[in-house]
TrEMBL record:
GO molecular function term, any single one: dioxygenase activity
Keyword Iron-sulfur: no
CDD domains: 45_DOPA_Dioxygenase
Pfam family, one: LigB
Species for this entry: Dyella agri
Top-level division of the source organism's lineage: Bacteria
Entries under InterPro entries matching the protein: Extradiol_dOase_DODA (IPR014436), Xdiol_dOase_suB (IPR004183)
Family note: Belongs to the DODA-type extradiol aromatic ring-opening dioxygenase family.
Record lineage: Bacteria, Pseudomonadati, Pseudomonadota, Gammaproteobacteria, Lysobacterales
Name of this protein: Dioxygenase
C-alpha cells in the first residue's frame, strides 16, 4: 500500500453534520478518491492541552461539546471503534520526538472529530484515535507533532487535522452572510493557498506576522493549528491541494487541504 495523504478539514459549525452543503459533498468525494485507511488519527481544535494527549479508548463516546443547537444534533452518534494499540504507537512516536505525550484512556470524540468523519466515513467503521493540540505552543510545535506522525502514513493510517481555515466567532454579530462576505476571508485564504502551493513552510509558521488579516481571521490559533499537524505529517516537499468547500455565514471559510508526498521526478 502506498503512503496515504494527510488532510486538513474545516469542520465549521456543529450544524454541518445536519446541513452538510458543499462541505459534505467535497468530503464525500475525497473519501471516494482515497484508499480506505486502516485507521484514523485526528487532531481536533476542540481538544486543548498543555502537552499532546492521545485518546486510547477502545470505544470512544460521542461528545456533544456545544450548546443551544437543535435537539436532533444531540441525538447523533459516531460509534467508530477506538484503536488502543495505535494510540500506544502514536504515543511512542511523539515520545521519541521529545514531545512529552500522555495517553488518555477515556477520551471520546468531540465535534471537531465526529462532524467531519460523519461526512467522510458515515459508516463509522474505521478505528479512530483523537489527538489534542497545544495552543500555547504555536504552529512550529504542531508541525513537529505532524512530523513525528509521518511514518503512520506508510502504515495505512490517515492523519487528519480538523479546524477551520478562518475562525472568528465574533463575526456572528457582524451581519455577514452569503451575500456579504467578511472582507478579510478571501485575502487570508488566498495567502494560505499561495504559501502551501509554494511549499513555503517558513512563511506558514510565521503566518501571524506575514498573512493578511491574520488576527482578524484567527483571534486565537486553535482552529488553524491542526493544519500544521497535517502539513508536518506529509513530510518534506509535500504537494498541497486546496479543495474549495465555500464560505459559510460569510466568514467561516470551509477549505479542505490534501497533502500528498513529493511527486516522483
Amino acid at each position: 500500500m502506498s503512503a496515504l495523504p494527510s488532510l486538513y478539514v474545516s469542520h465549521g459549525s456543529p450544524m454541518t453534520a445536519l446541513q452538510p452543503g458543499a462541505t459534505g459533498a467535497r468530503l464525500a468525494e475525497l473519501a471516494r478518491a482515497l484508499p480506505r485507511p486502516k485507521a484514523i488519527v485526528i487532531a481536533s481544535a476542540h481538544w486543548l492541552a498543555r502537552a499532546p494527549l492521545v485518546g486510547g479508548a477502545a470505544q470512544p463516546e460521542t461528545i456533544h461539546d456545544f450548546h443551544g443547537f437543535p435537539p436532533e444534533l444531540y441525538q447523533l452518534r459516531y460509534p467508530a471503534p477506538g484503536a488502543p494499540a495505535l494510540a500506544a504507537r502514536v504515543t511512542e512516536l511523539l515520545d521519541q520526538a521529545g514531545l512529552a505525550p500522555r495517553l488518555d484512556p477515556q477520551r471520546g470524540l468531540d465535534h471537531g472529530v465526529w462532524v467531519p468523519l460523519h461526512l467522510l466515513y458515515p459508516a463509522a467503521d474505521i478505528p479512530v484515535v483523537p489527538l489534542s493540540i497545544q495552543p500555547e505552543l504555536g504552529p512550529a510545535h504542531q508541525y513537529a507533532v505532524g512530523r513525528a506522525l509521518a511514518p503512520l502514513r506508510e502504515e495505512g493510517v490517515l492523519v487528519i487535522g480538523s479546524g477551520s481555515i478562518t475562525h472568528n466567532l465574533h463575526d456572528f454579530r457582524a451581519g455577514y452572510s452569503s451575500e456579504r462576505e467578511a472582507p478579510y476571508v478571501r485575502p487570508f485564504i488566498g495567502w494560505i493557498e499561495q504559501k502551501l502551493s509554494a511549499g513555503d513552510v517558513d512563511a506558514m509558521l510565521d503566518y501571524r506576522r506575514q498573512a493578511p488579516f491574520a488576527q482578524r481571521a484567527h483571534p486565537t490559533d486553535e482552529h488553524l493549528l491542526p493544519l500544521y499537524v497535517a502539513l508536518g505529517a506529509a513530510g518534506d516537499g509535500a504537494h498541497a491541494q486546496r479543495i474549495d468547500a465555500g464560505i459559510d455565514l460569510g466568514f467561516l471559510a470551509m477549505d479542505i487541504y490534501r497533502f500528498d508526498g513529493p511527486r516522483p521526478d
